[in-house]
Design a protein that fits this description.
It is a single chain. By secondary structure, the chain is an all-alpha fold. The chain has one domain. 81% of the residues lie in helices and 0% in strands. It is built from five helices and no strands. The protein has helices at residues 6-27, 32-42, 47-71, 77-98, 103-123. The longest helix has 25 residues, at 47-71.
Length: 125
């Protein structure tokens, strides 16, 4: 497959970012499930770089969405604080492990998480 132009890549990133932002803000998460396939499949980014880039993208997006939810009274600060500690610890562990696992294993783990997430949405909605 031929490499895409910088202009087309920029348009893909802008559109994908808008969709990821909407999904993350609307559902309270899930933007990474949009960004990772976008980076790997369409923009041919190496899987480890795609996952690391996605985390860097989703962090400010989640902070902004979380602030809006808090401001509107739709989130509880005590739950946010408690879960936030776990998220920080898990994020550090995940970032360390990302560098130690092969791209193929990362892809399999990602696909399993996507499938389990989809099934849980259907069964436990």
């Amino acid at each position: 497959m031929a490499e895409i132009s910088k202009k087309k890549a920029l348009l893909i990133m802008l559109a994908g970012g808008a969709v990821a932002g909407f999904v993350n803000g609307f559902f309270g998460g899930g933007g990474g499930m949009i960004v990772i396939p976008l980076l790997t499949a369409l923009l041919k980014t190496e899987k480890k770089k795609a996952h690391a880039t996605t985390i860097a993208i989703i962090l400010p997006l989640s902070l902004i969405s979380g602030a809006v939810y808090l401001f509107k009274g739709a989130a509880k600060l005590d739950i946010l604080a408690a879960a936030g500690g776990g998220v920080i610890a898990g994020g550090i562990i995940g970032a360390i492990l990302l560098n130690k696992i092969s791209n193929e294993k990362i892809a399999v783990i990602f696909y399993i998480v996507m499938i389990v997430s989809g099934i849980s949405l259907v069964l436990f909605r």
